[in-house]
Amino acid sequence: MSSTYVGTLELAAGAVLLSSVMTLWRRGVGSLVSMLRLQGLALAVVAIDLGAHERDRALLVTGGLVLIVKGLVVPALLRRVARRDPGSRESNPRVNVPSSLVFAAALTVLSYVVGTRIAALAPGVATDLAPLGLATVLVGYFMLVTRRRAVSKIVGLLLVDNGIALMTFLLTSGVPLIVELGSTLDVLLVVVVLQFLMVSMGRHSRTERLTEMKALHD
Amino acid sequence: MTVYLVALGLCAGGGLAGALAPRRHRVWVASLLGVLGCVAALVAAARTLLTGARATYHTAQILPLSGLSLSLDPLGAWFVATSAVVGLATCVYLVGYARHGMASRTALAMFMLFLLTLLAVPVASSVMSFMFFWELMALSSLALILSEQSRHGDARSAAVWYGVMTHVGAASILLGLLIIAAGGGQDFSQLSAQSTMLSPTAKGFAFFLVLLGFASKAGAVPLHVWLPKAHPAAPSPVSALMSSAMVALGVYGIVRVGVDLLHGGSVWWWVVVVLLGVASALYGALHATTSTDVKRLLAYSTIDVLGLVLIGVGAAGALRAVGLTSVAQVAMMASLLLVLAHAGFKGSLFLVAGAVERATATRDLDLLGGLVHAMPVTTLVAALGAASIMAVPTLGGFSSEWLLLEGLLHGLSAASTPTVIVMLLGVVAFALTGGLTAVAFVKFFGIGFLGRARSSGALDATEVPPSMRVAMIMLSALSVVIGLAPGVLVTTLGRAAATGLAIPDVAALGHSTGLVLAHLHGAVAPFELLGGLTVVMIVLAVGARALGSRRARRVDAWACGRDLQTPRMQYTATSFAEPLQRVFADVLRPQADIEVTHAGESRYYEQALLYQSRVADVVESRGYRPVISAALRLGRVARRLHNGNVDRYLALGFVALLVVLVVA
Amino acid sequence: MAVLAILCVSVASTLVAASPWRPWTARVGVVASALILGLGVQLSVATTSAPQWALHHSLRADPLSSFMVVVIGAVSLLATAFTSRTMAQEMATGVTTARYARHYVVLMQVFITCMLVAVLTANLGVLWVSIEATTIATTFLVSHRRTDGAFEASWKYVILCSVGIALAFLGTVLVYYAQLHARGPSHPASLDWTAVMSVAHHLDPNVTRVAFALLVVGYGTKVGLVPMHSWLPDAHSQAPAPVSALMSGVLLSVAFYGLLRFRAVAVAALGPGFPRALLIVVGIVSILLATVMLIGQRDLKRMLAYSSIEHMGLLAIGAAVGSPLAIAAVLLHVLGHGITKAVLFLAVGEVSHVEGTTEISRITALLSRQPALGGIVGFGLLSLVALPPFSLFASELAMARAEVDAGLWWAVAITLGCLGIIFAALVRHARQTLMGARGDAPARALAPAPSPALTALLVGALGVCVALGLSSWPLQSLLLHAAHAVVP
Amino acid sequence: MGVTSWYAWASTLLQVAAVAVGGPLLMGLMAKVKARSEGRVGAPVVQPLRDLRKLLGKERLHARHSSVVLALAPMVILASTAMAVAISPLVSTRPLLSTSGDILVIVYLLLTGSAAAALGGLDVATAFGGMGASRAMTIGALAEPALLVAVIAMSIQSRTSNLGGIVSATLAHPDWVLGPSRLLALGALVIVVIAETGRIPVDNPATHLELTMIHEAMVLEYAGPELAVTSLGEAMRLGLLFSLVANLIVPWGIATRPTALALVAGVVFLGLKAAAVALGVALIEVRSAKLRLFRLPELLAGGFVLSVLAVVTGLVAR
What we know:
The structure holds 4 protein chains of 4 kinds. Chain B has helices at 2-20, 23-51, 74-97, 105-120, 127-145, 154-180, 188-194, 200-217, 227-233, 236-261, 267-290, 294-321, 325-360, 371-374, 376-389, 396-411, 417-449, 456-459, 466-484, 490-501, 526-546, 573-583, 585-588, 618-639, 646-663; strands spanning 55-59, 68-72, 515-517, 522-524, 553-555, 591-598, 606-614. By secondary structure, chain B is mostly helical. Among the domains of chain B are: 266-504, no CATH class; 592-642, no CATH class. Chain B is globular. By secondary structure, chain C is mostly helical. Chain C has one domain. Helix content of chain C is 77%, strand content 1%. The model of chain C has no long low-confidence stretch (mean pLDDT 91). Chain D is mainly alpha-helical. Helix content of chain D is 71%, strand content 1%. Chain D contains 11 helices and 1 strand; from the N terminus they run ααβααααααααα. Chain D has helices at 2-37, 47-56, 68-87, 103-123, 127-158, 163-172, 180-196, 215-218, 224-249, 260-287, 296-317, and one strand spanning 61-63. At the B-D interface, helix 16, helix 17, strand 4, helix 21 and strand 5 of B face strand 1, helix 3, helix 4, helix 5 and helix 9 of D. Strand 5 of chain B pairs parallel with strand 1 of chain D, so a sheet runs across the interface.
């Protein structure tokens, strides 16, 4: 077991979680997208590192796919959306930044507790890092709940997705390729759909903040 | 069983004919098939009642995942017979009534379906079969209540009340039955075998659950609220069926589950049944005296009579539980006979109400009067019905009430204190009810049919078509036969009661026509009574003739010398009941509004004075309304849960995720 | 063979529908659905003896799948039959153009295809992918009308469902992980159903427990179970009626099908206790929520949506019991609910065309003014509240029996109590909308009543519900076979 | 059988005849007692019988809007009362048809008579008829239950609901007569009898003041033979109730053996006992004022409670 493999894996997995926590910290839409790109890249590194280590060609392909979709395409799409509304910031989150960070810490602890139980089935370098993935999922979800802007919500959704992807790589070295392909495609499509909706809604309704729409209620 | 299945088939055919046959023929075709179906059901029921043989039928092809099970035993056959007799009369009645209403496809189909379920419920012998027909009965009667909804606005609210109460009741029955069925299996025979292994608590729980549902169907106070709304709203043939056949099935259910499936249980179950009966009898009778709507009066009187039936059933159950089986059988016989007699007199009275409504376009007693001149046959039937329900000796109501009193009196010698106390309460309720019923039906007949017409509708009334008259007379005749010769029914009645209570058939042996309770020192011979009465009447009539003056001279009423006599000066139903209403004001809580319109500027001269008085159902206004408004408030508050904020929805999921992660 | 034929029909119809909008393209879906229904029936007959495979074991049909195909076929037949009418109406009122009509037709076919793939795939991962794909297709269908409300609904829908279904993916991944490291006989690791089931008894309980919990929350989102139900009323009320019919009638059940499969895995690995507890809690909470929301409901479509939540809650409790009788009843319920709910959504769609609103307080005397439509809504509601002779009565009663047999009488008690309140609420709403004298309401008819053929179709569908509720032949054996596919 | 047969026939006919003649005489007696105690001479005791004879000779008059009910009601009143007399143990414990009915038959026969009277009142379509009917039925509704329960109280001790049986059992157990149950039942019966026969303080049989009339208002439109039949019916009802109370409380003197002498003795004793009851009731009438209509329920409820207490006491003392 080469130390580069281990070091890279730990570094990249750490980067995934770190970037997700950073998204809670930063408010500007632009920096959110940057964090997301960083995360996508780190995720690709995890996949490729694992693939190289286990000589798993499917995983290498997946890594490439992740690199293209999550590292490049999705951030680019989001940046285009962000550019329509330059300088926008998540000015008033439902939970303020310091509290969010405390929450993130708590969520990480929880995912550590749950994750180690999961990892206990097959202890190993990769598996032991699984809690990081779960933490990313939870932080992403937390972001979804507490951030008001549409872009932030999409970013939160992507964080959840990236976290799951990280867990997939770490625990199982990737699910069967067809499933992986399908899920990646789905993520892409969801982003496209969301973007389409944001744009259409922006055109149609004069609601300033899309996520605050409450016309439909009982 | 074949005959019985044919009966069901004929009713179903009637329904199809009603739905599909061309307009000109559908009424009589449906009625004919209905009549034939009822006759077949009567034959099947009579065979079971006479031989005591039990017939069963099972098929897995009908009703998915459960199958259909039917079983005809003497107890069920008694109720089948009751339903069939009323069904027979109402089908005949329908031919004439259809020109007035209920001629639509849906109404006819639903009517036949209703009839079918009435015949099927007492025979259904598995949880699924029973609930299927039970709910179908509710559904079809609900549709029938609504069949005149565009004419009677009250029908909608009545239907909601009825639908909800019967559905909740059915849910309660279902849960109770399922608890008995928890060991697997759903046939009543299996349930009966399994229930011996249930704990007393579980049995009691199951019994009170089913009691809730069945008592509500039987119109027991305080679960009666739907009844005075639904019966008036339904077309008269339907009210007749509902009041005399459907409501009785609630009683059937209590006996079937309490005795057959749960083997009688403890005395306390039946004490509760008697208490329900006592409350119903008194409350129903009291409200009947103050009601002015003919059908509402009859509906409350149904509550009253069913209360007496429940007293009988409860007494029978309690006496059975303390070992006095022969007295228990008498009480049960009384209940069963009262059910049949009630089918006769209340059925005919509801048909009378329909005839009156058809002839006068009103059901308000305060607007009726003088129908005796225009509608002699209807009046005669009304008189017989009213007399029977007042328990005038030699009529149906009397025979059954006599049996009931005998049962209660001999039950007083039981050794168990709770039993004696409820018997005593039963006797007291019985006595009070008798007097109140008399007031109600003297009012019904005296105000509605005698005197002078109080509205143009009543003035222009004409007699109803022959088929309606025949139907009314048929049901009247039933009550007269029960009254005059209860002895001929005693054997079958005793068998049905004994099967119902699962005890040996010992108690009553009729001698020719009367009732003699050999070991209980009681006897009544209505035929001889009628003979005596007739002799006296003939003597009087002959005597009057002998004294000369054959024809009476018509003169203006004297009325203490008052010159002007208008119909408006007669007592109305409201004023007739006013003294009694005042006596029982604490229970009835009548509401009166006085509205004064002053003439011009003056405060002293009144131009018009509007006085309104009405008696609302206290149980409804104090017991049900608060619950309903609380539920509506809850609904309003709950709407805030879904306030349109997507963050809140996401947060819900997030919390759920965290909880699940912690738990897993 | 039938397996492949079904997918071919579906894909082909999608391609045909993708040609530029003509009135006839709207009918493609009807033909396709009818074919699917027919093939589904044939498949059910074929699979009673043994499961069928296709495309190198990537497609698999057992009685459960074929039953779901029948449900999809039946409901989509109803929904697609209304396509041309809906499009014609929307074009007449300027809501839609030919371009969007084409989108609509194609997306409907994609939607149906995705659901078929979901039930016919052998792979639990592909099951997830195709259910996620339905989200994308239906998002555009929900926003089809392009109103503020439609966009808002589809926005909420896609956000909530994406995150929910992502959790289901995580659960699937964990099952795969557990399968990789399962003790016991050596086996190829894949998410193939037969492979998973063959080692299900050896899966690690800790991992499987977390996995199943995530799956319940995740698939529960699409099923519409509390707490992830919130998208459902909005989406159902804003989508065009046929879309709501399909979503409520089958999409929820297809997601539930996923849960049924994973429940079998979880029961094998964990024993019945944990899955049962989880499903019962979720089911009862769903029913409770639906109950309180239905009491004060003001909109017909939202009312139907909440009723779907209630029925899904019932299914969850039924699945929790998991005896063959319970699962058979659950499946019968799926079919009955699918048809009934589709009929109701379509009928209410017509009501909204005719009346211009679906607000309960603004509609009255429908029965006397529009007897056919009012009658369909009325009988549909009777079916929905599970009165006999409709099949929902038989299935609910069988579920209740199974539940009490399993010792869950308290759950039945709560359920029955809630059902009573729901009945009261629905009857009250029905009283407002359906009953009343003709003169009570202004005589307005913004659109002509549906054609006799469509009316007959809806009546026929209700007739099918009655037939299913009356006769057990020949469905009963199929139901029991299907139940045994997920009950060991 | 032959012996008992003539005895049963004879006792029945004797009873009916005795009550038919005795009822009016009792009314006359009470009027006489009242008159004397007020210092007047009063009409002779046989005056009611004379009135009947006079009425029978008059023309039949029917109100214009009345129906056949008007003519039937008096006959029903009389027939039901006569039937009740025929099966009650008045002269002997075993009159003919005594097994055809029991307490319930008698109470419901009386109720039938009240109902017929009320219907007759309603049939004439005047305000007074309705008023009388309404009031009489209200009082009846409260009084009949008390009567029924009071008799039931006695039937509990003797374990039969047959009145003849009750009387025979009392003869066999003289100690019952002064028992608490019987005394309570006696109190109830007195109230019921006063209400049922329309005496002060419930109703004033002599009044024609419109606001206080009860029974008189009902029969206001009757004339000639029909009034005679109605009055006779009412008188027989009074006779029956008085004799019944007397026999239930103090049964001695009633014929128990099938001999002519016993029957004659029975008639004599019955007359004496009924006269004693009439005297008592007349004294109550003299000493009290008529109650307001809406105070009556209190009195009648009191009667009902007494009868229920009698049952309870009977059960406890058993």
